Amino acid sequence: MPSHSRPGAKDNDLRGAAQREHEADLRDNLVKMREQLLQLRENDIASREDIILATQKMQASLESHISKLRQANENLVIATLNTQTMADQVKEVRDQMSHMAHHDFLTGLPNRKLLEERLTQAIAHAKRHNTRLAVLFIDLDRFKIINDSLGHATGDALLQSVAQRLLGSVRESDTISRQGGDEFVALLPEVADENAVALLADKICKTVSANYLLAGQELRIGATIGISMYPEDGIDAEALIRNADVAMYHGKKTTGSNYSFFEPEMTLRAIERQRIEAELYRALAHQEFELHYQAQVELLTGRIVGVEALIRWHHPELGFLLPDAFISIAEDCGAIVPIGRWVLRQACQQTITWLNAGLAVPVIAVNISAIEFMRSNFMENVRAILLDTGLEPQHLAFEVTESVLMKNAQATMNVLQELKRMGIKIAIDDFGTGYSSLSYLQRFPVDTLKIDQSFVAGILADGADDNILINSVVGLGHSLGHRVIAEGIETPEQLKFLVDHLCLEGQGNYLSKPLVADEFSALLRTRLHTTAENPSETRDTRLQ
Ligand code: C2E
Ligand code: CA
Ligand code: CA
User: Fold this and answer.
1) pLDDT at position 385, please?
2) Fewer CB within 10 A of the terminal residue: the chain, N end or C end?
C-alpha cells in the first residue's frame, strides 16, 4: 500500500504531476473548444451574412419583379383603355354601317330592307293578336318629267319634301320607307278597318299634292296609292308589298283614282305588264315595231293635208299589238325614249321616200309622249334626225296631249318656241279632255287643235248636249286662230255635222283607216290621180 510510507510523499508528487497534466489537457481542450466555438461563430457570422446577402438579393429581385409587374400592369391598363376606345369606334362605325344599310341616303327614311324587317315583325304581332295591318304603296305621278326637265337636284329636293310630308301624315307607330326612285311604302301596323285606311290614303294624296316651293319655283306633284291588307292580301312581307304595288299600278293605269285596294284579278295584268316591259327593248333591236299611217283630210275636198304616224308592234307570241297595250308601259320604264326616236326617224325617212317618189305629203304628224318632250336633249335628237334623214322641218308636226302642255306650262313654252323657230308644227292632241288654261292656249305657239274622238263619237248618238259641246270646242279653236281637226270620224253623219259646223279637217276610219306604208303610197297615188281627174269632187271625201 503506497500510502503508508515515504513512498506516500512520492505518491503525492505523482498525483500532483498527473493532476497538472490533466489540467493542461483540460486547458488545451478548452482552448480547442474555444477555437472551435470561435470558428463556429465565425462560420455562423459568415452564413448569416450569406443569408442577409441572399435576402437582399431576393429583395432586389422582388422589387424588380414588382416594378416589372407594375409596368406590365400599367401597359395592360393602357392597352385595355385603347382596346375600349377602339371597340367604341368599331361600334360607332358598325352602327353607322347598320344605319346606312337600313336607311335611305337621300331622305333618311327606313329603306326596303328595314321595312321588310318591321313588316315581318308586325305580321307576327298581328297573327298572335288576331289583328289586321295595311301596307300602302305610294308612287308619285309625273316625277320623271320633273326630274328630267328641272334637273336631278330639284328632283332630289322634291323627294325630300315629299318624305317629310309623308312622315307628317302618319302616326309615330307607322313606318314610312323609301323603296327607291319615287316610290314609298307605308306600314300601318294598327288599323281598324278599310274605311280608316281609305281615309288615311286620301289624306296622304292631298298632303303630297299641295304646292311645293323649291329653288324659287312652284311645283305640283300627285300620288297614286295601292293598298294591301293582312291577312286577306298576303301573309308575308313580300306578298303584301307586291300586291300593294300591283294595286297601285292598276289604279294608275285603269281607274286613275288616287288609291285602290288590291284585288286578286289585278295580278294577271301586272304579269302581262312586266312581260311587255322586259320585251320592249328586244322589240326595238329585232325591228318588231312598224308604223301605220292615217290620212288627215280636208273634209270638203277630200284633199290629204297630212298624215299621222301610229306605232304598232308585231309581237312574236302575243301577235299584233296596238299602242294602248304598250305605250304607257314604255313611258313608265323609259323605253319610250328610244322607241320615240325610232318612230321619229322612221316617219321622217318614209316622208322623204314619198316626197322623192313625187307623192305629195304636206306634213307628217308624230305623237310625242310627255317623257320625251320634257327631256333636256329632246331638241338635240330632233335636229340630229332631221339632219340625218334630210327632211325639211316644215314637213314635220308633233302631236302632244293637252295635259302634258298644261301641266308643265312654263317649261313647255320654251320647247314650243324653239320648235316654232325651226318650222316644226305643233298640234294639241286629245283636245277637250284635259283642263286647259285659256291664257296658255292663247300664248302657246300652236298650229292645230285635234278634237278628241269622244266628242265626235257623241255626235247625233246622244242628243243635243254633246253637239253643244263639240260646237263650243270647234268655236274655241277657231277663235284662238288655230286649225281644228276632228278625230275618229266613223260615219257620214258625223262628217256632215262637222262640215256644217265649220270643222274643216278630220281624220277617222270613215275617211281612211291607218295603213301600212305601201298601202298609204297607193292611196296617195290614186288620190293624186282622182283629184287631178275630178278637181271639183267635193261630196264623197272617203279615201278608198
Ligand atoms: P291618238 O294620238 O289619239 O291617235 C288616234 C287613235 O285613234 C289611233 O289609235 C287611231 O288608230 C285611232 N283611230 C283613227 N280613226 C279612228 C276611228 O274612226 N275610230 C276609232 N275608234 N279610232 C280611230 P291607235 O293607233 O291605237 O293609237 C292610240 C294612241 O297611242 C294614240 O292616240 C297615241 O296617243 C298613241 N300612239 C300611237 N303611236 C304612237 C307613237 O308613235 N308614239 C307615242 N308616244 N304614242 C303613240
Ligand atoms: Ca295623235
Ligand atoms: Ca288623239
Assistant:
1) 98
2) N
DSSP bridge partners of 139? 183, 224
Answer whether 310 contacts ligand 1 (Cβ < 6 A).
yes
Please give the distance of CA 208 from its chain centroid, rounded to a whole number. 17
C-alpha distances out from residue 469 to 405, 433, 481, 493, Å? 22, 11, 19, 17
Find the domain containing 472 and state its range. 272-527
C-alpha grid cell, residue 536 = 271639183
pLDDT at residue 228, rounded to an integer: 97
Reduced to 3 states (helix: H, G, I; strand: E, B; else coil), residue 366 is strand
82: left (phi over 0), alpha (psi -120 to 50) or beta: alpha
For residue 381, what pLDDT is reported?
A: 96
* Contact status, residue 440 vs residue 480, Cβ threshold 8 Å: no
Residue pair 295/524 in contact by the 8 Å Cβ criterion: no
Q: What is the pLDDT of residue 10?
A: 67
State the pTM of this model.
Answer: 0.63
Closest ligand 1 atom number to CA of residue 343: 41
CA–centroid distance, residue 450 to ligand 3 (Å): 7
- Ligand with smallest separation from the Cα of 427: 2
Q: Looking at the structure, do residues 202 and 289 belong to the same domain, yes or no? A: no
Asked if residue 388 is part of any domain, the answer here is yes
- Contact present, 228 and 134 (Cβ < 8 Å): yes
Q: What is the separation of C-alpha 87 from the centre of its chain, rounded to a whole number of angstroms?
A: 36
253 C-alpha to ligand 3 centroid (Å): 17
- In angstroms, the CA 332 to CA 334 distance is 6
Q: What is the pLDDT of residues 38-88, one digit of tens each?
A: 887 788 777 778 888 888 888 888 888 888 888 888 888 887 788 788 778
Domain boundary among 237, 264, 291: 264
> φ, ψ for residue 536 (rounded to 5)?
-90, -5
331 within ligand 1 shell (Cβ under 6 A): no
For residue 310, which ligand has an atom nearest its CA?
A: 1
Is there a single domain that holds both residue 387 and residue 465?
yes
Residue 30 Cα to chain centre, angstroms: 117
- 203 and 276 in a single domain? The answer is no
Q: Among 232, 264, 296, give the residue marking a domain's end.
A: 264
Q: Are residues 488 and 390 in the same domain?
A: yes
Q: What are the tens digits of pLDDT across the range 177-190?
A: 999 899 999 999 98
Question: What CATH number has the domain bearing residue 396?
Answer: 3.20.20.450
